[in-house]
């Protein structure tokens, strides 16, 4: 095998890998469409997109950490942390608007601490966010004494269930987040810096980019979107569940990787990450409708993630 | 080049395998569907806990017997509120005629049930109570509550403990997770039934865990070696207590009664280690849920509260219960039976 002969073929495969998420989405939707008449209905696709919204927002946050060649494992705890803050403040009688801001701010603080440790103290991203995953989870359990706090707010309930006509609020929140993240990454100088730092921190430093600050900003942005997702989680569940959300953590990373972003940084796809989130949610949704045991559901989700990782091998 | 080709083939095969699996399973599911009766959706916490698995099996068996479609779904753990809610809102858009829901806690399922309630689909509250005030604030109401009476289970345990100890002695209560309502109710029933007769020298939480119950009981036996009875709020703790008693060389001197009627507990009763267990019948609960849905669908008035059966299993009846597990070994008073007859 010579280098010249291999180049066009692996180039094609690399391109194919970029379309892994939309391609797999079409295949999965088609398979469910064949399997059941209840899948491809307006009602169900509407709900599917609502169910995907929280994961999509979370994945968009994860996207920031991944684009600077990092990873944010703390979202598994940061998500219930935001939810618990919202639950605690709302129960204490704080007005809902302020409670939501406090919840989001709380998640940003976690992101800033992660970013400071990774960016300024040059600690390994994996270990830092694994550590904060555990610390934040503990703080959350202390705050709530391990109990779910019921948040029965007509405002949050309306956000979860209603919308403008047939357009649900959850879709709009996810869409707004996606547009903002896309604009930040590809239309601002900050975005150029993020991509440059991810592509090669030494080179970025050489061109005068404040690498440490950029890293901090990336984790803070991850925290911010995690906070938004936490508020959505409370709205959907009508309460703040303090337990660790490992499913969301793994799925957020999987969605980003499925979407075509490189875990080695410097490459981002906003549409891809959102598609990845919809794909992972589609699997669970479709299996639920068909009535397949949940054990198969986790196997299939895992298999899709492994396939994505395999495809990622062909990317440059 | 050969390597690249091999990789492409591998990817294709793997992709085909995943999609093939989904398609194949789906067709299998469709064949079972019958259009005659109501389509019933039941959602519980998880299937890893044998208790919920038994509820699922009872519901599926009843659906099969009566020729109606029953889809039972669950989250991934006892506390997976979000996973459970995702299942509810997915099923809410599928035109089911009746919902049965076991909540993770008193409030988690209310929001996803709002769309179901808006369609005027009957909802059954199964096993654990959903907060009535928060439900009605959100416009959700329940056609019926189907579940065991945990106070009654505690009371029955207390009565049997009194008989076992000839009406006197020192006892200990092993509690479940702090704040968990079913455990609180069991303890309440036991305390009331034994009040003024048995002396409860200690109430210790062991979080429904066998290992924790073992450690807690070992410590208690050092402080109170003269106790003659232990009431554990669930079977796994009861089994932990039994082990601790054995380890301390006190086997036969301290009688342990627990609640649930899981397989391991029945085996322990059979071998003479556990004095008895108050069994609940989640399998019957699943059957009752399907019956209630059928009755509600045919326009019949169903009772506000349907109490699932409980029974005390000691050495005398343990063989019968093991043989009929997970079904009740004796017939029980079912208020729904006349509504779904014929």
UniProtKB/TrEMBL annotation, chain A:
It is a multi-pass membrane protein. InterPro entries: ABC_transp_permease. It is found in: Cell membrane. It holds the Pfam family BPD_transp_2. The chain crosses the membrane at residues 20-41, 48-69, 81-114, 126-144, 169-186, 216-235, 247-264, 271-290, 296-314. Its main location: membrane. Keywords: Cell inner membrane, Cell membrane, Membrane, Transmembrane, Transmembrane helix, Transport. This is Autoinducer 2 import system permease protein LsrD. It comes from Amycolatopsis melonis. The lineage of its organism: Bacteria, Bacillati, Actinomycetota, Actinomycetes, Pseudonocardiales.
TrEMBL record, chain B:
It is found in: Cell envelope. Residues 40-300 form the Periplasmic binding protein domain. Gene3D superfamilies: 3.40.50.2300. PROSITE patterns: PROKAR_LIPOPROTEIN (PS51257). It holds the Pfam family Peripla_BP_4. SUPFAM superfamilies: Periplasmic binding protein-like I (SSF53822). It comes from the Bacteria. The keyword Signal applies. Residues 1-23 form the signal peptide. InterPro entries: Peripla_BP_I (IPR028082), SBP_2_dom (IPR025997). Keywords: Signal. Belongs to the bacterial solute-binding protein 2 family. PANTHER family: D-ALLOSE-BINDING PERIPLASMIC PROTEIN-RELATED. This is Substrate-binding domain-containing protein.
């Amino acid at each position: 095998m010579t280098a010249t002969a291999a180049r066009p073929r692996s180039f094609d495969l690399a391109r194919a890998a970029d379309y892994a998420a939309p391609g797999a989405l079409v295949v999965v939707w088609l398979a469910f469409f064949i399997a059941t008449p209840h899948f491809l209905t307006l009602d169900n696709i509407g709900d599917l997109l609502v169910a995907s919204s929280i994961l999509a927002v979370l994945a968009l946050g994860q996207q920031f950490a991944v684009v600077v060649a990092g990873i944010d494992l703390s979202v598994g705890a940061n998500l219930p942390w935001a939810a618990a803050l919202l639950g605690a403040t709302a129960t204490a009688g704080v007005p809902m608007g302020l409670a939501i801001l406090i919840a989001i701010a709380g998640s940003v603080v976690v992101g800033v601490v992660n970013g400071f440790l990774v960016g300024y103290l040059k600690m390994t991203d994996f270990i830092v966010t694994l550590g904060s995953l555990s610390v934040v989870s503990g703080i959350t359990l202390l705050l709530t004494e391990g109990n779910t706090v019921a948040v029965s707010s007509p405002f949050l309930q309306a956000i979860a269930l209603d919308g403008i006509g047939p357009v649900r609020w959850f879709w709009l929140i996810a869409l707004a987040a996606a547009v903002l993240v896309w604009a930040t990454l590809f239309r601002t100088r900050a975005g150029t810096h993020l991509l440059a730092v991810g592509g090669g921190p030494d080179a970025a430093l050489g061109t005068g980019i404040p690498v440490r600050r950029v890293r901090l900003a990336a984790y803070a942005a991850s925290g911010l979107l995690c906070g938004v997702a936490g508020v959505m989680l409370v709205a959907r569940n009508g309460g703040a569940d303090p337990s660790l959300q490992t499913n969301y953590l793994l799925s957020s990373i999987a969605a980003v990787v499925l979407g075509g972003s490189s875990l080695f940084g410097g490459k981002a796809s906003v549409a891809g990450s959102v598609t990845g989130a919809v794909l992972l949610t589609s699997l669970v949704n479709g299996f639920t409708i068909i009535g397949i045991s949940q054990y198969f559901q986790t196997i299939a989700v895992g298999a899709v993630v492994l396939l994505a990782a395999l495809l990622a091998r062909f990317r440059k | 080049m050969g390597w690249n080709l091999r990789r492409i083939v591998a990817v294709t095969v793997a992709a085909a395998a995943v999609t093939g699996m989904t398609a194949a399973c789906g067709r299998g599911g469709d064949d079972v569907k019958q259009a005659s009766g109501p389509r019933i959706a039941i959602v519980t916490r998880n299937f890893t806990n044998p208790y919920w698995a038994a509820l699922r099996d009872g519901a599926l068996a009843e659906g099969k017997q009566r020729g109606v479609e029953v889809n039972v779904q669950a989250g991934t753990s006892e506390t997976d509120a979000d996973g459970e809610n995702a299942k509810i809102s997915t099923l809410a858009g599928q035109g089911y005629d009746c919902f049965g829901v076991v909540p993770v806690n008193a409030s988690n399922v209310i929001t996803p049930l709002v769309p179901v309630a808006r369609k005027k689909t009957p909802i059954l509250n199964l096993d654990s109570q959903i907060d009535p005030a928060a439900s009605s604030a959100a416009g959700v109401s329940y056609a019926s509550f189907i579940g065991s009476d945990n106070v009654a289970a505690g009371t029955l345990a207390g009565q049997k403990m009194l008989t076992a100890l000839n009406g006197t002695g020192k006892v200990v209560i092993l509690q479940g997770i702090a704040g968990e309502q079913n455990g609180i109710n069991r303890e309440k029933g036991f305390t009331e039934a034994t009040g003024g007769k048995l002396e409860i020298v200690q109430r210790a939480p062991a979080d429904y865990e066998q290992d924790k119950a073992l450690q807690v009981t070992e410590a208690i036996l050092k402080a109170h070696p003269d106790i003659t009875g232990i009431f554990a709020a669930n079977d796994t703790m009861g089994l932990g207590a039994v082990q601790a008693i054995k380890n301390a060389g006190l086997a036969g001197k301290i009688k342990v009664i627990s609640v649930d009627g899981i397989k391991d507990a029945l085996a322990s009763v059979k071998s003479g280690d556990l004095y008895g267990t108050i069994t609940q019948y989640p399998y019957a609960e699943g059957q009752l849920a399907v019956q209630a849905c059928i009755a509600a669908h045919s326009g019949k008035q169903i009772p506000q509260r349907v109490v699932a059966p409980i029974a005390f299993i000691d050495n005398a009846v343990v063989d019968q219960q093991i043989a009929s597990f997970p079904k009740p070994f004796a017939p029980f008073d079912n208020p729904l039976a006349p509504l779904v007859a014929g």
